[in-house]
Amino acid sequence: RPMMLTAAAVIVGSAVMLFDPIFQGLAISLMAGEVASLLLSRMAVPVLFYLSERKKHKDEVKRSDIKTVLCPTDLSSQSAIAMKFAASIADRIGAKLKIMFAVERDVPAYFTSSQIDEISADLARSGDADVESLREFMVENLGADADATLTVAEGSAPMAIIEESEKTDTVLIALGTHGRGGFEKLKVGSVAESVLRESTCPVLTVGPNVEPVGVVEMERIVCPVDYSAESETSLRYAAELAGVFNAELHVLHVAPDGDDEDLATLCSWVPAETKDQCSLQEIVRRGDVTDEILHEAVRISADLIVIGVSHGTFSDETLGEKTTEILREASCPVITVSAAVSG
User: What local confidence, expressed as pLDDT, does residue 319 receive?
Assistant: First the structure.
């Protein structure tokens, strides 16, 4: 009988422990620890080891002073337009054109150190195929005589683009954007916006409303301005670009009601030698900034819009959401220029 009582007590005690919240919490913690340990040993550790081994064999990259226009592409129609503008601008300013494709490779969840050479060979073959696709895309849009460096970078697109831009004296990044907004943008993400916020050089974006072009003819440029340092920098940049293309520069100021100040001060930022090379049109409008910029671009059939921006940690501190809207709605490519760009 004492043994039966003892057994019963053990059973009751075990039942109580099973339903005890503290015991359940400890059990869940132990199980979670086991799962985390398994994931680390089977997935994370091999992948980290693989990546570290690959980095050891990479040649050290030194920054070049070669003036470069970087054109990341996803082989889309908007990227094709961006490539044509990039090639035209690079040719006019005497810069090298570099066309890049960013890809995130799939690495097996588990492998041994003896498989690293085999995996590296597979990735190399994939890289060669990507370069060939890139070459075909370039020839299709720029012609067989196009002179450009082709490169395939591994990693997330925004990070790969910024890292590639830091390898040379990159004077412009040109890329297409699909103009996603709202929840879709949060869900899918925006490569263009990430590059815009991280880049210290001007960025040309081609939105979804930009029609395909045969040959890039830069005849009319719109540069909206206010009385900020960002506008001063963008106006100088737009004037220089208008000069090398012998284009009309339409300087647009959207004034609030009651502001009768003209553009004399703003246009004085343009160096005299640059003024001699391009035709300046000074325009004052009243109304919504975004609407007036887009309207002016359509009215004159602008080939390009140049906007000055100041990038904050979480948002643009100048045009803010207006910049995103202009990039998405514009009927022509848009170049954003930060105050960090020297005039």
Answer: 44
> 304: Cβ–Cβ under 8 A, 6 or more apart, which residues?
85, 218, 220, 221, 222, 241, 332, 333, 334, 335
Identify whether the C-beta of residue 114 lies closer than 8 Å to the C-beta of residue 87: no
- Sequence-distant (≥ 6) Cβ neighbours of residue 226 within 8 angstroms: 253
Token output for 35: 């799962």
Confidence of residue 325 (pLDDT cuts 50, 70, 90): confident
DSSP for residue 114: G
CB burial class (10 A; 0-12, 13-18, 19+) of residue 160? buried
b/e code 298-310 from CB counts within 10 Å (16+ = b): eebebbbbbbbbb
The pTM score is 0.73
Backbone conformation region of residue 210, classed left if phi is above 0, alpha if psi is from -120 to 50, else beta: beta
Contacts of 163 (CB under 8 A, 6+ apart): 153, 155
Please report, to the nearest 10 degrees, the dihedral formed by the alpha carbons of residues 227, 232, 235, 241 taken in order. Answer: -170
- For residue 314, the model assigns a pLDDT of 37
54 CB-contact burial (10 Å; exposed 0-12 / middle 13-18 / buried 19+)? middle
Report whether 266 contacts 227 (CB < 8 A): yes
Are the C-beta atoms of residues 242 and 278 closer than 8 Å to each other?
A: yes
- C-alpha dihedral, 237 to 240 to 241 to 242, nearest 10°: 120
β-pairing verdict for 203-206 and 334-338? antiparallel
Task: Judge contact between 267 and 232, C-beta under 8 A.
Answer: no
